[in-house]
Amino acid sequence: MDIERTLAALTLPEKAAMVSGKNFWYTAAVDRLNIPALMMTDGPSGLRKQDPSASAGDITNSVKAITYPAAALSASSWNQDLMKQLGEHLGEEARAEQVSLLLGPGVNLKRSPLGGRNFEYLSEDPLVAGKLGSAYVEGVQSQHVGVSVKHFVANNRENQRFTASSDMSARTLRELYLRTFEIIVKAAYPATIMTSYNRTNGVLNSQNRHLLRDILRDEWGFHGAIMSDWGAVADHAAALTASLDLEMPGKGQASVDEIIRAVETGELDIGTLNKAVRHLLHVVDKWKPAPTAGTYDHQAHHDFARKLADDSIILLKNHQQELPLTPGKAGKVVVIGELAEHPRYQGSGSSHVNPTKVVTPLEALKSTGLQADYYPGYQLDESETDDRLADEALTAAKDADHVIIFAGYPAAAESEGFDKTSIMLPENQTDLIGSLAKLNDHTTVVLQNGSAVEMPWIHTVAAVVETYLAGEAVGEATWDILTGAVNPSGHLTETFPVRLTDTPMAPTFAQDPRHELYSEGIFMGYRYYDTHEMHVLYPFGHGLSYTEFEFTNLSVKQSEFGATVTFDVTNTGDRAGQAVPQLYIANHTSHAPMPTKELRGFAKVAVAPGETQAVTLKLTRQDFSWWRQGKHRWQADSGDYELMVGQSSRDIRLQAKLTMDFKNSPAPITDETYLTIIAQNARLLDLFKQTVIQPTNQGENGLLSATDENGVPTVLSDQMFLNMPLRALIAQGVPASLIENFIQAANSK
């Protein structure tokens, strides 16, 4: 397509139609210029192409498609290669169904475990979400299908999501909630970005010029199209002016008419409209649908869904090697819980997929070789205990060699559109787990849930396996882990707190219908728990294996641009396994508030028994940077840092200190800079001596002429003076002009 010629040929009504969704799933076509309509559909964890005969609001009536693990589980793989393969599988399916844009991935951060849509998101950490999200995008788009990364930005609660404002500091926004999108935009070049419903600091995101134009377009260089979430546009002309390109799903002719009217009245500049149409023409040209419908191997894609779940399921606890249960040696096994028969394998809402086939844990049990009986134990859609069901389960469990109870939330408890009010399992399940553990020391809990749960029974059960929402192969993958057919290698991408009240936003989350105050700032997730040395149920990054890994030989090579970190991972057990080494940085030099540690790199490493694999992770200047609000820029400070390598944020195996010297890093010196900062920096100390101490008439200023026993000026050695800002020296008689000369010299490059 000749974009500029086509743009020039479009009439005003045609342009107005193009920036307004034709209907629920299509953009507007312009037949006379051979501009096709693009079909889009939901797809973070499976294709939800609406059946043509279904109403727009019927989210369950869609074509049959593979239901992959929800993002909460697939992200727990920490496996970028597998996430790219997931994207490739989804892209192939979308292409076969003539879908041009797949609405995903969802990459909002898991700020609170009450977030109703947490199952659809990747992590509480922006690096994990950014790296895994980038791999997903690359995979989908390699199949000639575009994506829509969502929801931009700070959409971390569902209650009042259309109107509530996410209120936070610029630093919090930059370092956490924007950072994920920045990583994906710069690394994977997504076709589109979808704006969220909410406001950010009072401005509706669909018409937030600062976010859409200043940051996304101008600063990050995003060249794709920006579209709205469904119904997120309040003022279409204002949204276009702010750099939105496409309102979805549009309001029919009313949307077209309002754009025409806005141009004719001068409310909307025609050049602004042309920019939006130009962006959409590029998307149409690059991501136009396949000319004919295709096919794909459903069984092969189901097998991949199983593989992805296998790689992602997390072994949280395994007391005295309770697991795996070896067929032929495990003895009598009792399986309890309605979720074994009717599993939760996907979330509710717009990500709901009509599965090709679901293999339940009860069905998959038949092929494991285990001798097992099944008892429902509880009613999933009830919270009160059914005494008959509970008594049957307890009687059977009493004499069993092993008890496996499947537990989790009913579908009605977790969905898009509303937030949870508790992270406790239903009362009947909680009570049953406690009773089973008292009767039988060999009780394993298998969880099916969308996000973190409280576990008041954790110290009484032998093992806990977190499957989150494992997709249509839930049964096969669960028993793969339980029987040891697959060695578990999943690791948490969110922290499990002991209690909901331990979370930093517990007192305020979703309390104000109009404002969500991010008062915790950057101290969210493990950044909060680790910095405050709080006890947690399971830390960020945690995951066990049926083998053991040893980390050795940490080596760091640094430069003014960053550092290269290498270390060895050795499998010291007798089973092949996959380790997930995580690299954290502790900033000991910057004087802004800093978390105890922040994740800056990770890998997934397959290691055979007795084998050693070398791992190399590279750190850039960005990894040492923080957002300086007053200067509106990223800042990397020269000084002391600490590197930590471990298997979770609390399981640190290797540590190394390093001193970074970032050339051309501007010194943020003001009259409120304390003398201790100057005394600790060789360059600043030398400048201070040259510009302040030496020019001063020693006889007229006793403050600067006084020295300690080593000849160092007292103002640079005495603790009382070191705890003074530069402006305090003026009050002590130091000429203001000298202080100004020093500040100017310190801040010059």
From TrEMBL:
Coiled coil: none annotated. One of its GO terms (molecular function) is hydrolase activity. Pfam families: Fn3-like, Glyco_hydro_3, Glyco_hydro_3_C. Residues 579-649 form the Fibronectin type III-like domain. Keywords: Hydrolase. The keyword Hydrolase applies. Belongs to the glycosyl hydrolase 3 family. This is Glycosyl hydrolase.
